[in-house]
Design goal:
Bound molecules: heme C
CATH topology: Four Helix Bundle (Hemerythrin (Met), subunit A)
Shape: globular
Helix content: 55-70%
Largest sheet: none
Mean pLDDT: 87
Order of helices and strands: HHHHHHH
Strand content: under 5%
Low-confidence stretches: 5-19
């Protein structure tokens, strides 16, 4: 009886965890452009800033205007800010690769294309390398890697972010589509 109960509990736990995993799979909410503006753009800018300023240097005080952002602006500082930005970019691939994500023009983001996956993989790899360099607080290395980061953005944009014809050609590449 006891053994049976244990087995049942174990099955329950397994089924439960699979169920929980599925429940966390939320459908995409924003367009790809919104993810780019909200996540890729601000976080890559934090990393690009490293070329011009030492993340460890003390920050200028933000004016006390009572906003929450300015009040807490000094809580996370230094290299940790760069580390976090790099991690968000590395993890960002799972957001831009979410099936069903629309682009601004209504097309679906081409997440099943082989080259798209390669470009987003490049983003993850370079962001991970930046994260490692940020842990080492190596400003020169992060500075060098920002070139690779900009290149990783450009490589995908060249193919998939066409501004031709009022951006109606965006998200329309000619790469190989992988089977489901
Ligand atoms: C795997 C492909 C891919 C990668 C990598 C990528 N982008 Fe994008 N990006 C796109 C596509 C496609 C669009 C157009 C989205 C749309 O129209 O909905 C876009 C749009 C944008 C936009 C919005 C432009 C507008 O219309 O306002 C910004 C900003 C942007 N990307 C920044 C970046 C930055 C910065 C990086 C690198 C850190 C990056 N992207 C990496 C594919 C990519």
């Amino acid at each position: 009886m006891r053994a049976a109960l244990l087995v049942a509990t174990m099955i329950g736990v397994t089924a439960g965890s699979v169920g929980a995993q599925t429940a966390l799979e939320t459908p995409p909410v924003g367009t790809l452009a919104q993810i780019m503006r909200g996540i890729y753009f601000p976080n890559s800018n934090i990393i690009f800033d490293t070329q011009m300023r030492d993340p460890a240097a003390p920050r200028e005080e933000k004016g006390a205007d009572g906003t929450v952002s300015n009040t807490f602006a000094g809580i996370y500082t230094g290299w940790q800010v760069v580390e976090n930005a790099a991690l968000v970019l590395a993890e960002g691939a799972s957001l831009i690769n979410k099936p069903g994500r629309p682009c601004q023009n209504g097309r679906l983001a081409p997440v099943q294309r082989y080259d798209w996956l390669r470009y987003s993989r490049e983003m993850t790899d370079v962001s991970w390398a930046i994260y490692q360099a940020a842990l080492e607080k190596d400003q020169e290395k992060v500075g060098e890697l920002t070139n690779d980061l900009a290149q990783a953005c450009d490589n995908c944009h060249e193919v998939y972010r066409s501004n031709a014809q009022g951006a109606s050609l965006r998200c329309l590449g000619s790469g190989i589509i992988l089977p489901n």
